[in-house]
Specification:
By secondary structure, the protein is an alpha/beta fold. It is about 50% helix and about 15% strand.
């Protein structure tokens, strides 16, 4: 059974939250992203290979797939970076501008950018997809294999700054689907 958009978002948010909270989980995700995604309820097409990049305080990665199928288009339409990605996939001239001047193009398209930050567009291939993690924010929870429902709620619905960070993370990550 194919996953709907909401199921993908929830499963992906769980993986993102665990990677941000637990160093050992993050290490495993970096080393074996496809396996970790599958173990956490995401359906991965056999031909897709996921790679993990991590933002820093200075560098923000913007993964750009070569194409987006109709089923995944709904995910991109809901995300701040998603609108820019959809446009870049559909318009070669826009894509070249994004590659040459990412911060300028993001700002022109209503995406909030950090002052002094560097934005790097990473081109996917037909089968390579990227997961981008936020700058290191691990260690908020005790080390274990999974977050409890309460801990997930705390990450997703706690203080506004935490909620904002997770929401931004999901924006960045789901461009892989």
């Amino acid at each position: 059974m194919a996953q709907n958009t909401e199921q993908k978002l929830k499963a992906f948010a769980k993986v993102v939250a665990q990677a941000q909270a637990f160093p050992a989980f993050k290490e495993r995700l970096v080393a074996q992203p496809n396996e970790v995604l599958k173990e956490n309820g995401l359906e991965i097409a056999n031909n897709r290979t996921f790679k993990v990049l991590e933002n820093s305080r200075q560098v923000t990665y913007l993964p750009l797939p070569t194409s987006i199928d109709e089923a995944d288009k709904a995910v991109f339409e809901r995300l701040q970076f998603g609108q820019v990605i959809l446009k870049a996939v559909a318009d070669a001239e826009f894509k070249q501008r994004l590659l040459a001047h990412p911060e300028q193009v993001l700002k022109e398209n209503g995406v909030d950018t950090a002052e002094g930050g560097e934005y790097r567009v990473v081109l996917g291939t037909g089968n390579d997809y990227f997961i981008v993690l936020l700058a290191n924010q691990t260690g908020e929870f005790e080390e274990k294999d999974e977050l409890s429902v309460e801990e997930l709620d705390a990450v997703a619905g706690g203080a506004k700054s935490t909620f904002t960070k997770v929401t931004e993370a999901i924006d960045e990550y789901l461009c892989c689907y």
